[in-house]
Design brief:
Blueprint: E1 9-12, E2 18-21, E3 46-49, E4 54-57
Length: 76
């Protein structure tokens, strides 16, 4: 797969607001969960509170710091 497909997505978040990060890669609303994991019998979302107003969220799902990108997509 091409690296661009796995590039992180820059998002504007509301500090301290709770969000649901997609862990299954099936969500049409990447990087956020839209509930599609249920159709694919995959584990649910990872809930997190926004630490900053701007963030780069992982789309390759290989990050060691979910939901934030750590550059793991560069090795794919």
């Amino acid at each position: 797969m091409e690296k661009k497909k796995y590039a992180p997505i820059r998002v504007d978040l509301e500090k301290d607001k709770r969000y649901a990060w997609c862990t299954c890669s099936h969500s049409e609303g990447q990087p956020f969960c839209d509930g599609t994991h249920r159709v694919h019998n995959k584990p649910g979302a990872l809930g997190f509170n926004a630490e900053n107003e701007e963030a780069w969220l992982c789309t390759c799902k290989q990050t060691q710091n979910p939901p934030y990108c750590d550059g793991s997509h560069n090795a794919l």
